[in-house]
Amino acid sequence: MKRLLAAVVALGVVSGVGLCAGASDSALEGKILSLEAKRVEAMVKKDIATLDALLGDDLTYTHSGGTTDTKASFITLIKERGRYQGVDYSNTQVIPLAGGTTVVVRGRAQIRLEGVAGYPVLFLDVWALRDGAWKMVAWQATRVP
To answer: Could you tell me if 121 and 109 are in contact, meaning their C-beta atoms sit under 8 angstroms apart?
Structure first.
């Protein structure tokens, strides 16, 4: 939770900046968005090995309904009751933070679940570079009324 709070505070500092125009930032944006797509695909397919590799051990995953999962409880949720059919992103911004080892992704997403009408959320997602690999360490979603 402290990392999520730190990311939110840092986001407030850079909120007017948006995406940097440098080539390395563009490559980083592509890499993070590719990892996001891979994560969603793993959720849909219940690919636990891929989720395990993409999620940080200290993950805080707060769903739009207000419940919060750890990495272990989120993986269990996907394995036992996963109903994700997809996530469609829009207005997405990828914001590298100081040092380039943390990235905030924010925007709007349409969550598609089996047996439930899709619903829109605003989201904040944090990725951190750990031992040479990007790991998702936080997700926070709020339903759009």
So the answer is: yes
Domains of the chain: 2-143 (3.10.450.50)
Q: Residues 63-70: what's their mean pLDDT?
A: 96
Q: How far is CA 133 from CA 54, 61, 139, in A?
A: 8, 19, 18
Phi and psi at residue 20, to the nearest 5°: -80, 155
Amino acid occupying residue 31 = K
Closest CA to 141 of 117, 115, 119: 119
Q: What is the pLDDT of residues 94-103, one digit of tens each?
A: 999 978 899 9
Where b means 16+ CB within 10 Å and e means fewer, 126-143 reads bbbeeeeebbbbbbbbee
**How far apart are alpha carbons 42 and 40 in whole angstroms?**
5
